[in-house]
Amino acid sequence: MTLGSGCHLKSAFSMKLDLCKVVNGCRLGKLTNLGRNGDKSIVFPGCMLYTRTGSAPHLTYDTMQTIEGLPLMTQITLSTLAECQEVLEDYKQGIGKFIGMPDSLFYCSLQDPVTTCPTGFNTNKTVSMWGGGGRLEMTPLKFMAIQNALQADWFQCLSYGVVPGGNSRKRAQKSVDRSLAFLDECLRLQEASLVPQKSVMIGAIEGGEVLEERLRSARETATRPVGGFLLDGFQGDVMDKDSRLKLIAAVTGELPEDKPRLIHGLGKPDEVLECVERGVDLFESCFPYQVTERGCALSFSYNYQLDPETAVLDPSEIQEPNRNGENTDDNEEPDKDMEQITAFEISLSKKRYQDDFRPLVQGCRCYCCCNHTCAYLHHLLTSNELLARILLMIHNFQHYFGFFHAIRQALKDGQLPQLKSLISKQSL
Ligand SMILES: [Zn+2]
User: Fold this and answer.
1) Partner of 300 for a Cys bridge, out of 28, 82, 264, 344, CB 3.0 to 4.6 A?
2) Ligand 1 centroid vs 127 CA: distance in angstroms?
């Protein structure tokens, strides 16, 4: 299936999506002919490399290269880079070369998934975003000028979601109408541009919690010459899980099969699998970053080939997922970060790790686990050493990318139910 055939996309001439297998709605496949020279490809389900202001948190380029399974597609965020517009216009060679990652593919989203921004500042002409210097009002014209300077391979089109409160149906309708109008205007500007366009526009599906609006947004966006779709507005705790999953399934049901579907804000292992089952292809990787920031290490098992019982329960193979346990021995004040700790991670600043000389995860091949122990990480964290976050980021990224590899392998092997049951056992 070739994208853009029959439409006037000036950019995604040859981006191609091959579905290798579809099992109960889960899509296993490959996107090829990507990048400036059309010689790159990515596999899905997959995730993108999360960056903040154009760099992988805590890591230099060289350190990053030691991580196994590093995604080829890097996520950058417009809100953190918009202020560089003039510099990038002068520089002329695009964001990849500017940040020292010339071989990566780039997807530019509007907002940083980790930072919550004030809402309610959008108008029918502008979308507001917050950079280091405060609020930026983005018109389609300004937006497209920045995209021309960034030269990302893909970018999320200007759009906005539903602001909570009031009449949600009316707000949902408005978010869909305005986002479609922004999309049409951006496509018009791209079409009219004299500069050859190298970037592919990803259309955002909005509509909040209102099913009819979500469906309308999906159907209408699908009639436009976009390269793929972003399921926007599912982040945060605004929606209950059931409605969220129903909406995601309804939306992907309306989308053409030959274009990638991206989602923002859902990254916990159980959430990822639920989305994969509903036809979502690409995710962010801000979850391992958030885990790192709270001084934790991902410790869940995704080795579905082991007997699931053993995988979770044998502490010599896999560290028990809830090693945090009831932390009566620690006498630590519960703070906000600690409240967010999930069952998929362990908090290494806890006293119980003081003399734990095992690696973070038995059998993990990352630089941190090959060279260091939980006890050392505990020491670094309690002494506020910067190295703690560097080592944790290496482990957490590698563990997370390994999870996506396991999803693809399980789909290939027809063993996704085994992986799902292993993950859900650990999510409790
Ligand atoms: Zn590790």
Assistant:
1) 344
2) 40
Enumerate the β-bridge partners of residue 190. Answer: none
Q: Enumerate the H helices of 269-315 as residue ranges.
A: 269-276, 286-293, 308-313
CA distance readout (Å), 286 to 84, 298, 312, 390, 393: 22, 13, 25, 15, 11
Distance (angstroms) between ligand 1 centre and the Cα of 221 equals: 41
Residue in this structure with the two tokens 């999906």, named with its chain if needed: 218
CA of 366 to the centre of ligand 1 (A): 4
Burial 182-210 (b: 16+ CB within 10 A, else e): bbebbbebbeeeeeebebbbbbbbbbbbb
CB atoms inside a 10 Å sphere around CB 227 = 22
* 387 CA distance to ligand 1 middle (Å): 15
The binding site for Zn(2+) consists of 364, 366, 369, 395
Q: How far is the centre of ligand 1, averaged over its atoms, from the C-alpha of 393 (Å)?
A: 9
Residues contributing to the annotated binding site: 364, 366, 369, 395
**Domains of the chain, each with CATH number or no CATH:** 72-263 (3.20.20.105), 297-305+340-426 (no CATH)
Could you tell me which residues come within 8 angstroms of residue 369 by beta carbon, excluding any fewer than 6 positions away?
Answer: 359, 360, 361, 395
Residue 32 reports pLDDT greater than 60 = yes
Q: Coil, strand, or helix at residue 272?
A: helix
Q: How far is the CA of 291 from the centre of ligand 1 (A)?
A: 13
pLDDT tens across 322-346, in order?
Answer: 555 444 445 455 566 677 899 999 9
Do 107 and 74 form a contact (C-beta atoms < 8 A)? yes
> pLDDT for 213-258, tens place per residue?
999 999 999 999 999 999 999 987 778 899 999 999 999 999 999 9
**281 CA distance to ligand 1 middle (Å):** 25
Distance between CA atoms of residues 330 and 340, nearest Å:
17
